[in-house]
Structures are given as structure tokens and as C-alpha cells.
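Q: I have 319 residues here and want to know how they pack in 3D. Can you give me a structure?
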Amino acid sequence: MRLTCRSEAWPIAGRFTIARGSKTEAHVLYIEVTDGLHTGRGEAVPYARYGETVEGALAALDAARPAIEAGQIPALTGAAANALDCALWDLRAKASGVPAWQTAGLHTFSPLKTAYTLSLDTPEAMGAQAAANARRPLLKLKIGGPDDLARVEAVRRNAPRTRLIVDANEGLTLDSLKALAPELQRLGVVLIEQPLKAGEDDALEGYKCPVPLCADESLHTRVELERCARLYDAVNIKLDKTGGLTEALALKQAAQGKGLRIMVGCMVATSLSMAPAMIVAQGADFVDLDGPLLLAKDREHGLKITGSMLEPPEPALWG
């Protein structure tokens, strides 16, 4: 087996802003594994919030190259593990002729309706974003400041029939959450994602929030699941956090066994990152795989996306 990997930068359509900052490009890790006849591909997004960089992921893969090319699975984590795991799933599908979704145990592989993310901005600007996307079935809006209620009100006013998710990206305190949550319930918000900082969210234990709470930064793999099940109503599964499709599928099953609702999310990336996540997202309560919709252009053979509807990937893309 032979491994190749590189960094890529994909321009974002405008600027993408969350509570932690802004960016105008999506920097991704791209890898290929080949057995000489078939090639599998994987993509991942190393995330600074978790101490990752593209350069660090490339170095980890290069250090693991002898093991990988000998057919062994090295002890990688995060984005580097995700890119390799997904590339191996793709290679297996290409070599065997059995689609990855069938190997994952699915009986069907259906189109999915994704949320569409509104970047953090002024209430007026976010209201304009909402008006331009008011026909989408689910909007996820980023919050993180003193004008949060005004932001949500502006979005609701301009998208009166759309379901709303609010994503704080660790930007609230318990007191601000308690003050904001009843207003979000009034505005029809169906989910609040990661209100408090990971590691400081034990304060949520025993709090009966009027809007369901979803763990994101607090949950990476099954290791954190027991703790999160005490604090949250739902979990956001992202392949870059789990270290690949293999662990993501196991995490989904374990989380469902604890009665948690499932969101399958993504970083801003191309369709190559979304394709394996679509397998995990089958039957999920919330799907947030809008990465390609936020880019100025997508990868060749990208997902067919009509409005908010994602079609299953073609084999030329992945799986």
C-alpha cells in the first residue's frame, strides 16, 4: 500500500465567523491510499480548538507512513485518523465493489436534508442571511455576544417557518444560558448546541433547560459519552472529532443506546468530507453537513445538492 497526503485550501464564499473567530479559507488535509490497482481518498479538517494544524497532521501521517504502507493501522487521533480511516473505507469499497454504506450495515442510503449555517454577525446582517435562506427547512445560527437575543429574533422574523438551531460554540455562561433559553423557546428554537465551555459544563448537571442541549466540543469519542449523557439531551458527532467513520458509527450506536438524540455535523470542507458522514447521518435527528454550501467552489464529483437536499455520493467522489 502507498500513502500520499497534502494540504489544500478551499476559498469560503465570503467570511465564516463563529464565537472564536473568522476565516476566509477552509484548510483541509487530503490523503490517498493505493494498493496499486485501486485508490481510496479521505479528507479532514485539523482544528486549532483541539490543538491541531494541517502541518501537524501531515507530520503525524508521515511518521506513521511505514506502518500504514505495511498494512497496519497506527495510533492516530483526530483529523489525521479521520482522513486515513475514510480513505481506507473508500479503498475497501473500490477494491471489493461493495459500497461503503453496505459495509456499514445500512439497508438503504437515502438523500438527507441538511441544516444551513448562518455566520455570526450583527442582528441586521444575520436577519438578511435568514431572509435569503428562509425557504430552507433548518437553519443553524451562530451566536456569541450581548446581542444574541436580537440575532435570533432577527433570524426568526425573516425566516418565520424555518426550524432553528442555535450554536454558541462555548460562548455562554450558565447565567446567560438561563436568561436566554426561555426566550429561545419562545422563538421556536429546537436545539442549543454547546452553550458552555467544554470542561466547565458540569454546571449543566441538574439544570432543566427549556430547549434541548447538544454536546459538540465536549464530545469526541465514546470516552466522553457517559459524562455527556448526564449533561446533554443530544450529541453532535463529527468524523474529525471521532477520528473517522469507524468510531463515528460506534459512537452513534452507543449514544442512541443511552437515549440521546443524534446530530451529525461537519467542519467547513468539501464534499469529500461530507460523503462518509452521510453514512452516519442516516436516521439522525439533525443533519448539519452544509460544508460545501459555504465554499466558493467544491471538489470535482462533489455531492449533488438541491436546496438543502444532499444526494448520496457517486463512487467517483467516495465510497
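Q: Anything worth noting?
A: Residues 132 and 158 are 9 Å apart (CA to CA). The chain has a mean pLDDT of 96.
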